[in-house]
């Protein structure tokens, strides 16, 4: 009984999260360098300096610079951490 309730809650939360999030064609990034540019643009919109982002994410300034130019040059975990720090949601689209 408790397991069934837990599963129902999980499904409800997932459905709610999905209803709050929609992806449009303009949101889909097909080239890595465009992701880097989007993250850097978001950083600037938020007024976050590279130094502060370095402190927030643990990624060095050099790594952040590489990420913003070409995310393929850094570990995926770094991309995820930086995106999360900037409030950018990463997802897959099928």
Automatic annotation (TrEMBL):
<feature type="domain" description="HTH cro/C1-type">
    <location>
        <begin position="39"/>
        <end position="93"/>
    </location>
</feature>
<dbReference type="InterPro" id="IPR001387">
    <property type="entry name" value="Cro/C1-type_HTH"/>
</dbReference>
<protein>
    <submittedName>
        <fullName>Helix-turn-helix transcriptional regulator</fullName>
    </submittedName>
</protein>
<dbReference type="InterPro" id="IPR010982">
    <property type="entry name" value="Lambda_DNA-bd_dom_sf"/>
</dbReference>
<dbReference type="Pfam" id="PF01381">
    <property type="entry name" value="HTH_3"/>
</dbReference>
<dbReference type="GO" id="GO:0003677">
    <property type="term" value="F:DNA binding"/>
</dbReference>
């Amino acid at each position: 009984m408790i397991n069934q309730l837990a599963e129902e809650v999980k499904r409800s939360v997932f459905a709610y999260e999905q209803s709050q999030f929609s992806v449009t064609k303009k949101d889909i990034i097909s080239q890595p360098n465009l992701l880097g540019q989007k993250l850097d643009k978001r950083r600037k919109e938020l007024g976050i300096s590279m130094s502060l982002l370095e402190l927030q994410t643990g990624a060095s300034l050099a790594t952040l610079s590489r990420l913003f130019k070409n995310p393929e040059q850094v570990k995926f975990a770094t991309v995820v951490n930086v995106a999360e720090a900037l409030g950018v949601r990463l997802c897959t689209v099928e």
